[in-house]
Amino acid sequence: MSHELYFNYAELYGLIADDRNFIEELNRLRAFTLPSTGLFVELFAGPAYHGTHLLNGGWNGKVVAIDNSHEMEKVACNRGFNGNYLCADAIIGLEQIVNADLIFIPRYSIVLVDKEYAANLFNQAAKSLDTNGVFFVEIHKDANIENQLYIGGRWDELSIYKRILETPLGKIECIWPYKTEIVDSDQKIVDMDVRITIAKDNLVDEYIFTSREHLHTKADILKFADEAGLKELRERSCELVDSYLLAFGLKECDTKTNSPILADTFQSDILEKLSFNRLFDISSVDACSVQLKKSGLDADAHDSPLSLHVYNLL
User: Fold this and answer.
1) 203-212: per-residue pLDDT in tens?
2) What is the pTM of this model?
């Protein structure tokens, strides 16, 4: 999602993206059937809708939301999220997770990272999963990203193309994508505009935000999984109206050590290993310590800044 929308208009994002039946989605993940000692991880969490509804729905396990936006963390907390919120790059955040029962990348968020990053993210997810854990990713259907649709911009067929809602701010209309521009046709990279209007008291404010998106096909996702040592769990995967919900588990269920859910130290070389990432901001050591303390980690043990990224989608 657009850097400006995600960071400077987080409250607005929170209103617009709150357009799903999250309990239904959690039931599809079988999240409420996870053991009470389990761990649910929401990547690219934004306002942490799924984690909030899971905890409010009576599940007593541990929930970790991972996202790079401090503003989104505030929105999540204001909406009642009381799990652990790690304000960090997705891979760096997952480095702190072991024995996760379920890791979830919600609706289309994976398209905001390129193939190299996505492959590394799948590798880390495999390391962070419990032996019988499940990694879910929701992606566009291939029919929506084949050349004719992709180049023609016929995204109006998506159910989320236009959203209209009444809010205290006024009547909000969101069109995504409003316009598309091809960046790389071979790699299926496009710039997509989001148009948001807010009408109140006969006045209309218009906002246009742009995000660069990498339209991974189902074959791409399966390749990332295979190379990471993951296999598709076809009995858990399903086809939805606009998307595929793909489920993955470890190919070989090797016995893992019973480590803590959140590691108590960051690996000093992690920033070097992820130096190819697109950096939008670097937090200070003090800011990192504040976030780490809020997440229940040992802040005094951390002396490396976190690389922060802009990865989420309406």
Assistant:
1) 999 999 998 8
2) 0.78
